[in-house]
Structure formats: structure tokens, C-alpha cells
Amino acid sequence: MMTACATKKDANDGKTIANQLEERLASLQQKGYMAGHQDDPFYGVTWEWEYGRSDVKDVTGDYPAVMGFDLGGIEKGDEKNLDSVPFMRIREQLLAHVARGGIVTLSWHPRNPLTGGNAWDVNDTTVVRSILPNGEKHELFKTWMKRVADFIETLKTEEGVRVPIIFRPWHENNGSWFWWGQKLCSDEEFHGLWNMLQDYMNERGFSNLLWSYSPNLDGQWTTERFLARYPGDDRVTLIGEDAYQWGTEEEFRTGVTADLDFLSAFAKEHGKLLAMTECGYKNMPEADWWTRVLKPLMDKYPICYFLLWRNYKKEYFGPSPSLPCGEDYKKLYEAENTLFLNDIR
Ligand code: BMA
């Protein structure tokens, strides 16, 4: 079991818990790629808050290998996150997944620290500047980072050992729909933002965090453009692609192919892991999309995992036995190169 392993290795070889997670991801990647799902153990297309339940498990008989959770709201001291999931429940289910040998990832959609709006409040382009040192909201943002850190601090095994976590802040930053997005800050401000959070987390001693840099589906990367906001080889372990099909299938295929051609070459050259850190097709209009569109794309690249976004009844990205796409997802499950919980522990 991974918990015991992580516990033992904590003081082993000078390797941090994040180093060990990196090695585990690299070695699992040799076997295939892991299936992931956001908010998997909390609710599904037809149910909510049932312990032990998971739409992925209902469809395949197994849990996804990777589970994703979001910290949005923790910065304000809220009891529930932006999608109404109690943080106590996140802690409990994140630790349960690690204990059964699974892998976990955290994202954070913090509110807008300048306007008080949500993460998608993009009317003001001085938000990032305002929270950097000397900015009018710097002190406020320090308390936000502290609350995130205080929560992460509690993510420990029963033996008191910090658990390995893929941490993916400031994602989709090449788009302009979050207050940390492309048009909302300069390259320099974005680096300041990334470094401020990472340096603070490092000061807090979180060597269990594996940092993922995950821009959105772009389709037009050049090295110059990518490097302009890339935090740096010393700051990133995994390069992610967040990619949804919003338009046509052809656009999705072309864009993802261009991105993964670029990102996989970059990752190889820089010794980084690669993953589809968010993906899907909202409310699955085409029952065979996973095996017909997504899988053939992913098969061409050395990705560690793909994370489908949450299954909320009005807005779902994963499978459910109640949906036609459930059958297709089963085929994904049965494929040799897709890994679920039982394949990785
Ligand atoms: C978005 C949607 C929102 C949700 C947000 C954070 O993609 O699913 O409903 O609040 O992610 O999870």
C-alpha cells in the first residue's frame, strides 16, 4: 500500500514526498495513463453525498486512480468550497483515497481579492498587482495563502505524515477568464504571483506538493510564448493541458494535437511529466466521444493521467450508468493502457 510506502520513505534517501510521487507517476506512465475525476466521491449525475459511491465506480467497478478536489473558498475561511463541498469532507475523502493507494490533485479557484467577486471576475486588470508585495491587498492575500496552507497542513496520514499531492494553482492562465489570466496581468506579475505562493508553501515546509503548471488548450504555442509565463524548471514538475471540447470535434483534435506535440516535446526536453490535468465534453453530447475522440489523442503522448471534471447534475463531464456514455467509458476502462485504482496499487 502506498501510504505505508510514503510513510517509510518520508525520511528516506533525502527524497521528498513530492520526489517520490514524481517517481511513481513516471513509473506508472510506462504502463499507461491513469483515469481521474474531479469531486468523484461526493456526488454524481443522479446522487449526492453517499459514502463510498462514485460514478466512475458505478460504471466500471473501480475507483478512478486520480481524484481531484478544489480549495476555492478556503481563503475566506468558508466551511464549504465554491461547489458546496465541505472542506472536512474533502480532507476525509482525499485522505481515504491516498490510504487506498490512489493519487490526489488539488486546484484552487480563489475569489477575487480586490473586488470580492469570484475567480471569474475579470473586470479589473490590477488584481494580481494589488496582491504582490507593496500592493494594497498584499496583507489580505497573505492571510488567504495562510488559510490554504493551514488546510494542507492537515492532510496527513494517521501516522502524521504529509500525503503526496499534485498541486495545480493558477491554471488556464493563458486564457483571460480568471483574474490571474493572460490579459489580466503582465508576464512579470504572473511570475510574481506564482513565486509568491510557491515560496510561501515552501517556507511552510510542504515538500509533499508536486507542482503542476497547466495552461489551457491553446493550439498556437511557440517556445517564446510558452516560456513567457512558464514558472521555470526549478518550480514545476508536471506540465498539464486543460482541454475541453467546446466547439467542433475537428477544432478540439487540431488544438489538442498541436498543444500535445509542443508540450510533450517541451516536457521531454525539460525532464517534466505530462498530463491532461482537466478535460472533457460538457454533458456528453456524443456517447462514444471518449473512445472515438479523446483516447486516440491521448494514446499518442506520454501522459500520466487525464482528469475529467466533476459530475454535477446540471453539468457533468464524467460517466454515469444513467447515461449512454457509460458504455463507452467501460470500453475506456477495459483498454490495456488505461489505469484505474486497482491497476496502480
Ligand atoms: C467549473 C464549473 C463550475 C465550478 C468550477 C470549479 O468548470 O464546474 O460549476 O464551480 O468549475 O469547480
Element pattern in H and E: HHEHEHEHHEHEHEHEHEEEHEH
CATH level 3 topology: TIM Barrel
Q: How much of the residues is beta strand, in percent?
A: 5-15%
Which regions have little confidence, pLDDT < 50, spanning 5+ residues?
A: 1-10
- The number of distinct structural domains comes to 1
**What small molecules does the structure contain?**
beta-D-mannopyranose
Describe the strand arrangement of the main beta sheet, using strand numbers: 1-2-3-4-5-6-7-8
CATH class categorisation:
Alpha Beta
CATH architecture: Alpha-Beta Barrel
Cα radius of gyration in angstroms: 19 Å
How many helices?
A: 12
* Shape assignment: globular
CATH superfamily: Glycosidases
User: How far from one another are the termini?
Assistant: 6 Å
pLDDT averaged over residues: 96
Q: Number of DSSP strands?
A: 11
Q: Main sheet, how many strands, which sense, barrel?
A: 8 strands, parallel, barrel
Helix content: 25-40%
Structural class, from secondary structure content? alpha/beta
Quick recap of the structure?
This protein has 345 residues and is α/β, with parallel strands linked by helices. The protein has twelve helices and eleven strands. It has a single domain, classed as TIM Barrel, CATH 3.20.20.80.
Give a written overview of the molecule.
The protein has 345 residues and is an alpha/beta fold. The protein has a single domain, classed as TIM Barrel (Alpha-Beta Barrel). Helices cover 38% and strands 14% of the residues. It has 12 helices and 11 strands. The strands form 2 sheets. Strands 1-2-3-4-5-6-7-8 form an 8-stranded parallel beta barrel, surrounded by 4 helices. Helix 9 links the parallel strand 6 (238-244) and strand 7 (273-280). Helix 10 packs parallel to helix 11. The termini are close together. The model is unreliable at 1-10 (pLDDT under 50). Bound molecules: beta-D-mannopyranose. Beta-D-mannopyranose is lined by residues 70, 82-83, 109, 309-310, 315.
